[in-house]
Amino acid sequence: MTMTTAEADKILADNFAPWVLELGLCVEALGDDRAILRLPWSDRLSREGGGLCGQALMAAADTATVIAVSAARGAYGPMTTVQQSTSFQRAVTGSDVLIEAVVTKLGRRMAFADITMSDEGTGRDEGPRRIAAKASMVYALLG
């Protein structure tokens, strides 16, 4: 049975540091091997020139992966980041970001995921959303 967005939002509230919660992430959708989270635009997260800072995108990718792995496992369990590689492709200015984390391999002790971060503002009148960043994650499953 697929985890609900309410259950996933509770995982966020119960298991993440206050500074991560201050990003305002919310779970938009879940599947058996994926999660889509929204990172709302905030001037507090922008840097010189008005672009969203990379640290916020990396934290959002990391957080989305925890939710996707939890959905794939059917529940939250202790896990920790082993590796994260992020490639930034374009600046995000003034719009929310949709973060889609897809679990590509789920083992007994390790999980692997690919993450796509898209600028929601580019999906309205300009055709498909444009990718702002991509990441790959490796997690150790502790419990």
| Principal-axis shape | globular
Which residues form runs of ≥5 with pLDDT under 50? Answer: none
Elements, N to C (H/E): HHEEHEEEE
The share of residues in extended strands comes to 35-45%
Summarize the structure in words:
The protein is 24% helix and 37% strand. It has 3 helices and 6 strands. It has a 6-stranded antiparallel beta sheet with strand order 1-2-4-5-6-3. β4 and β5 form a beta hairpin. The longest helix is centred in the middle third of the chain and has 20 residues. The relative contact order is 0.20.
Question: Tags for this entry?
Answer:
alpha+beta, 143 residues, globular
Quick take:
The protein is an alpha+beta fold. Helix content is 24%, strand content 37%.
Task: Give the topology.
Layout: H1 5-15, H2 18-21, E1 26-30, E2 34-39, H3 54-73, E3 79-88, E4 97-106, E5 110-119, E6 130-141
Antiparallel strand pairs: 1-2, 2-4, 3-6, 4-5, 5-6
